[in-house]
Amino acid sequence: MQRPTILLATFNGERFLRQLVDSIDGQTFAEWQVLARDDGSEDETGDLLERWAKRDSRVTVIRDGKRQSPSAASNFAALLDEAVNSDGDLFFFCDQDDIWEPEKIEVCLSAIENHNASAPLLLVSNLKLIDAQDSRDLGTFWDSNMMPPLEKRTTAELCSRNLYPGCSMAFNRNLLELAAGVPSGVIMHDWWLAILAQASSRIIEVPRPLVRYRQHSNNTTGATKWWRELTDLVQGKGRQNLLFCQSFDQAEAAANRLVVRGHNAAADAVNEFCTLARLPRGAALRRMWTLGIRTYHPALFLTFAFRLVLLHRRLRSSAPTS
Fold it and tell me: Among 73, 130, 131, 164, which residue carries the largest CB count within 10 Å?
């Protein structure tokens, strides 16, 4: 039987944490375990976790005495390292402010049942968007986030966009061991896993929303509207330009990891994206089109193409020569 292990990262999350805990306690599949790691919260989050662990032996609170930074990515990276030493074989990222549907674990177990456990495997589900009070249904994540058609969800596309929030993910031990030891150049833990999974094996999709994904001002990530991409480009927002450049560093790190672990063909697929940073402008745009990056949405295509041209010098100066 699969042993689902929930990786819960927290930081100042007392406002919503009780609802999350109740939704995990209410899962129809009860043989789960939780690895929870708090990143130095200044509210009651740590106490809430300790009380949960005291009343439920399935919950372990990691007390490593380290504060990575107030960052979801670094907190989850630390949890991946902890999970390698666990007895789990299926793993779930868990955000402190979401609500799991009662059948989430059961549905994910059923969806992966007939897939090859010896290959890295990532499952992603749809999400139901809710407001901070869980009083309004805001649609689904896949409908709101400009998801590409299935045939367009290539390795190059996933290198260019973080398509899948961590709270939508379940992954096997092979993918865990490939991803753990997250290098410093990685932007987000979930993006890192998606690139590695798509390049080395496959991603299974469950269209059913299995999490109520809360949208509020403190989200690390959230649903994105296409017009925000254009607005950020026109306004020349430095953070978005920085993330664009960092996405190539992240892809290089993924290619390197795949080579080290013997996934050479997968590394070649990632390097197709990385070459965009090394080519002259015109050749880079032609390669972008050939790879099909964002060709399913004009606004997304144009923002990526403009950044590729505008930031070309910065990309080429930092790109490896081979």
Answer: 164
